[in-house]
């Protein structure tokens, strides 16, 4: 953690900057950390000399993710002389991100945060003025419902306009002759529009260059290189060595059970594509070979790159597509998977030291953030490796709905340190999120819960809340890394 300097330096691409958190003293001496203009100071508590939120609900992710503007709504119901009337007031609040993503309005003395419910979602405040004690009639209730419908429509329009504005911004930015990678990471950290995700991911991974004039040439060359290696490595069964046969057999066992909830990956053609990608990668990387979990990491690339050619990937019947399209998707997915795995090679070498290190970091971080939960897990003899290994190996792909995982990868690919650093904080936030439930469970129920947490109804906002919490933990603890240097 920083010294008494008012500015907290961070090397993150996330949008919260040094003006958001200010610490009055070093971490070694008890101090006070205050969010600027914190409208809910009672919801922060002192912990090891810092202030941390008591729970997920105390973090308003709109400060990070609602980048352009939002509207606070006040709905007033007046009951006077037996007549019920209602009015709706909208107040526009704009957050400026110019010049490096600082949240200017958060520092303004005039800024007032909208009220949130227990889960951080914005809700209208309701003021009721009544001269007589009256019950609402059915007609008046219908009138209020109609007004609520208008508010819902306005909210949907605002979301649509925001998405359209973001898409236009990405189209203009990615259309430039030279893409500034740092700026792309800043604007992509909050999510990338679906129509521009394929191009953005390829640039972020280094598969495509920032220079637009060279992209077509490189795409054609890399796709041809992949096509040429197919007959070299994907040979007939009798020509394979015994280790290669064993590798292929394991891949063929894993492919059909990869993302069973996503219909796309149950189509035979897609399974054949996935099998070839995994097998060729394993043969070309003998020091690691194929490891279970790599099959999961290939699927977001296939899905995203297919969306470049198909309007609705979820309803797509792949065998109706041209073979040239599928060949391009396969080649691009292979090279991007290779780029991704190059950054986390130690996750898949002998004894998987990269994953072991991340699990140790998670345990140390949880001891700092939520020692009571850590103690309860220890009392129940719940070893972190028993549930967190899969979290690190597959980056929560089996715990969170697939389409939300793609949204998570937008942020991960925009991280300067890649997946490994920020993902530890995401896992810590994910674990703390279920703290109250876990403290009431014994070992078998804890393991069942953590292997299949109740995230099936999650939406984008839940991921934004999770990332907000994870970002906060990193701001508080990343520069005081005693918990990351253990073991």
Automatic annotation (TrEMBL):
Extent of Polar residues compositional bias: 1-16, 104-116
Pfam families, per the entry: RabGAP-TBC
PANTHER family given in the database record: LD44506P, TBC1 DOMAIN FAMILY MEMBER GTPASE-ACTIVATING PROTEIN
Rab-GAP TBC domain boundaries: 191-416
Annotated organism of origin: Cavenderia fasciculata (Slime mold)
Ion transport in keyword set: no
Record-given protein name: TBC domain protein
Residue ranges, annotated region (Disordered): 1-37, 91-148
UniProt keyword terms in alphabetical order: GTPase activation, Phosphoprotein
A single GO molecular function term of this UniProt record: 14-3-3 protein binding
Domain of life: Eukaryota
The keyword Phosphoprotein belongs to this UniProt entry's keyword annotation: yes
Low complexity biased stretches: 134-147
